[in-house]
Amino acid sequence: MAALIPLRRRPDGAMPGERHSASPDDAADTADTAEDGVPDVRRASWVLPIAPSSTSRARRLVRATLRDWAGSVDGETPEVAELLVSELIANVLRHGRGEPVLTLLLQDGVLRCEVEDEARVPVRIRDTSPDEEESGRGLLIVESLSRSWGVCPTSRGKAVWFELAVRC
């Protein structure tokens, strides 16, 4: 797995803790342009409420955003991204603090999804056997289906991220 240097700023360029709307139309969606006029980076970010409905809302936001970026994202990436984002949002709602901030970044054939919250407690993959409780396998799923994943501290708390390779 590739190691990445943790971002000090969210991929949308904002400092942790800055608020963005949670609707696809109002998202901080930007595209940086290379010298040839072709976008290099696509970004979107939302603050979600602390509510069980945020998990399904996050899946809808990912689906809508990646559909908007359809020229850049295809294959199974949108479905996998939806699944993994819902796992990270569910973790924040169950174990984290504060409103989750969901950020998507598409650059150079890599989709990075990040969920930030205010908890400073480190996350870890649970070592569970098949006979143990049904919950607690979210990060195992993230590890299994993503190209890479990790946790980085932010001034607000922490951000858990994963990356998926995309066909452009």
Automatic annotation (TrEMBL):
Record's keyword terms, sorted: ATP-binding, Kinase, Nucleotide-binding, Serine/threonine-protein kinase, Transferase
GO MF annotations in UniProt: ATP binding; protein serine/threonine kinase activity
Alphabetical list of CDD domains matching this protein: HATPase_RsbW-like
Composition bias type Acidic residues, residue spans: 26-38
Compositionally biased intervals (Basic and acidic residues): 9-23
Annotated region described as Disordered, given as residue ranges: 1-38
InterPro entries cross-referenced by the UniProt entry: Anti-sigma-factor_SerPK, HATPase_C_sf, HATPase_dom
Domain (Histidine kinase/HSP90-like ATPase) ranges: 58-161
Domain of life: Bacteria
Pfam families on file: HATPase_c_2 (PF13581)
PANTHER family: ANTI-SIGMA-F FACTOR RSBW, ANTI-SIGMA-F FACTOR RSBW-RELATED
Record protein name field: ATP-binding protein
Organism: Microbispora bryophytorum
